[in-house]
Amino acid sequence: MKKCFYLFAFILASLSPFTTPAQAASKTDNIEAAIQGEEFAKLVEAPFVPPPITRKFATKVIVNLEVKEEVSPIADGVNYNFWTYGGKVPGNFIRVREGDLVEFHLNNHPKNKNPHNIDLHAVNGPGGGGTSSFTAPGHSSVFSFKALNPGLYVYHCATAPVAMHIANGMYGLILVEPAEGLPKVDREYYVMQGDFYTQGSTGEKGLQAFSMEKAVAEKPDYVLFNGAMGALQNEKALTSKVGETVRIFIGNGGPNLVSSFHIIGQIFDRVWQEGSMSAPGTNIQTTLVAPGGAAIVEFMTPASGTYILVDHALTRAFNKGALGHLMVASVDSKASQDKLVYSGKQSDEIYQPEGANVATMASDKPKTAKSLVKDKPLADKIKAGEIIYRNNCSACHQPKGQGIPQSFPPLAKADYFNENMERAIRVVIAGLSGKITVNGQVYDSMMPAWDLKDHEVADVLTYISQSWGNKPQNFKTSDVKAVRKKLMVEMDKGGH
To answer: Which of 276, 310, 341 is the last residue of a domain?
Structure first.
């Protein structure tokens, strides 16, 4: 009977929505924790974070955070009037310790046009600090709070209209480290997603203004990591070495969309979901991060190469910008381990199902009089090619051929495309990987071979060449057949 009572009590406690006695005691201890000395917070711009806290006592931490309104690139050739904490999106990363007394100074730059405030989700108090920090341009507001609860928390502007201030980039992360600290890792990074709403469409050039209509409809033109397309790509990519441990503090400013954070080719060894410092989940592929929420992910990088950070609602990644890179360098002493974990492509051989033959696979159909496909008139080819492009190519190269900066090259006015008809055909039917230079920019992505019939390849390439300022050319079905035949001969000579 006694065992049943204890079991019942345990179940009730686990289901209870209220603070447990242990949690309440911990918060009370933090309220009463003695404060020793003071220090100024070291504020760091994304994707980096301040160093871990090594002190073993609570102190007074003085935070000076400046609000700045300034125009910056949101994409290649596209500018936006961001409202920021610290001059960048997301705002500076703030790191304090459980039990610290935080004296917060919010400074609104005199050249700004709007009043702002700050709501820190780490604050226990009305408005999270928002009611005490409403600040006009050229003024500074001061308030203080005790960091009672360890965790990773979002901060954002809460001045009306709140969604507009957040959509313009006014958000960041504050980490309240537990008193015992966090486990040591080799590298720490700061990544924050946000959705942006512009008067013009995605990629439309020039200075773009905020669209409240699109924000209310929750139809963003950009979904971005760290405030800009390409903010975490190529020379700005996150880096690591084989065998190192990586911790990413991931936040979501919103204001509207939930993030499905994923790294292609990595499994998170540990995830502290919703920014909680309680027991982490393990072996997680994708973690949800709500608007105004955060998470901490940790993983070891066992194999070299470039890994892609995405919001796994994938049109946001490949069409609207929520895409970054983690470049993991090989280490000589771990080269064999690297290949054991992931070999890379070992061969590329012709696959012939039972009853198939090379002649059938090398072209549309066996070459009989009935199966030969004649080229359509040019206007019909362009129309058919547009449909093929929209269904197969536009996700990466974008509807108007503008591409995605640092990820997928443009096809509009593209020298790489216009210079060589045969190369263009080869890319479509055989794929492409490795570095190429398009209009002076280096791209290092992969395009798969497309399973298109010869006349479809001719149609889509004709459509591209007749669009977006390219050199007008009429690709023939016979051109594609000739290139496909040449590829087959090259493969045979290669021993496959």
So the answer is: 341
Where residue 474 sits, what CATH number does that domain have?
1.10.760.10
**Number of domains forming the structure of the chain:** 3
- Asked if omega into 47 is within 30° of 0 (cis), the reply is yes
Q: Which domain holds residue 231?
A: 188-341
Helix, strand, coil share (%) of the chain residues, nearest 5: 25, 30, 40
Burial class of 451 by CB neighbour count within 10 A (0 to 12, 13 to 18, 19+)? exposed
In a domain, 265, yes or no: yes
For residue range 295-350, list pLDDT tens digits in order.
999 999 999 988 999 999 999 998 899 999 999 998 887 776 777 888 776 665 66
List helix spans (H) across 241-345.
Answer: 314-320, 335-341
478 and 372 Cβ atoms separated by less than 8 Å: no
* Same domain membership, residue 247 and residue 225: yes
What's the whole-model pTM score? Answer: 0.73
- The H or E element that residue 296 is part of is strand 293-300
312 and 459, same domain (yes or no)? no
pLDDT (tens digit, 9 = 90+) per residue, 264-285? 999 999 999 999 999 999 999 9
- The pLDDT of residue 288 is above 70: yes
